[in-house]
Amino acid sequence: MKMNTCVRSGVLFCLLMAGVPCSFAQKPVLTDWNYLPSYGQSLSVGRTAKPVVITEQKNGNLMFKGGVRPFEGDNDRSAAVPLVERVSPDGARGETPVSGASGNFMRLLKKRDAGKAARVRFLCSADGVGGVSIGVLSKSNAPYQRILDDLTAGRELADKAGKTFSMPCFLWTQGETDQQDKKTREWYKEKMRADSGY
């Protein structure tokens, strides 16, 4: 994926989260707990992103008990705990994009609406898979089931805590494999439309 495409995706995410009107999406509504997954290829799960930076949670954001990459912690989704990063057991993965994104969003929200920021939390996870095409990450495949499992567990935990719950958006970091496989821009757009419903 070309750098300018990555930058546009990052800017688009920030605009959506800040509530700037976009022609193809409605402003997301933030609930008490907001599920925010980082999904895609290896960069979405922090491949080679070491050392980790977020070793203490200062914005109230959460992860599942099994870690920001629940699949590394026996998929333990039995509790929500403060979001902190750690290097994966095999040493290959470190800081995930979801920590920085959720932290930056909370800092922006505090400046814009401190009252809302006091009650809003992000429940974050990084569920991607390294080195795969968009087809492997698509609906009805095993990696996508991780997001559905997170949503189910997150809703149950939020209900127990008496909190509202939603998934206002997600981080998408993918395209390298499809670019290497010489897939066209049109092919990729169609795959994205099929999975996103837009």
Question: What is the strand and helix layout of this fold?
Answer:
Blueprint lengths: L2 H16 L14 E8 L21 E3 L15 E3 L14 H16 L1 H6 L1 E6 L7 H4 L4 H20 L3 E2 L4 E3 L2 H5 L4 H12 L2
Parallel strand pairs: 1-4, 1-5, 1-6, 2-4
Antiparallel strand pairs: 2-3
Keywords: Signal
Protein name: Sialate O-acetylesterase domain-containing protein
Task: Summarize it.
The chain has 198 residues and is of the alpha/beta class. It has helices at residues 3-18, 97-112, 114-119, 134-137, 142-161, 176-180, 185-196; strands at 33-40, 62-64, 80-82, 121-126, 165-166, 171-173.
Task: Return the string of H and E elements.
Answer: HEEEHHEHHEEHH
Share of helix among residues?
25-40%
The biggest sheet amounts to: 6 strands, mixed
SS strand fraction: 5-15%
Uncertain spans, ≥5 residues at pLDDT below 50? 1-24
Q: Give the integer mean of the pLDDT values.
A: 85
Which structural class fits the helix and strand makeup? alpha/beta
- Rounded radius of gyration (Å): 16 Å
Query: How many distinct beta strands?
Result: 6
Task: Give the overall shape, derived from the CA principal axes.
Answer: globular
Tally of domains = 1
> Treating each run of at least 4 consecutive H or I residues as one helix, how many helices?
7
Distance between the termini: 21 Å
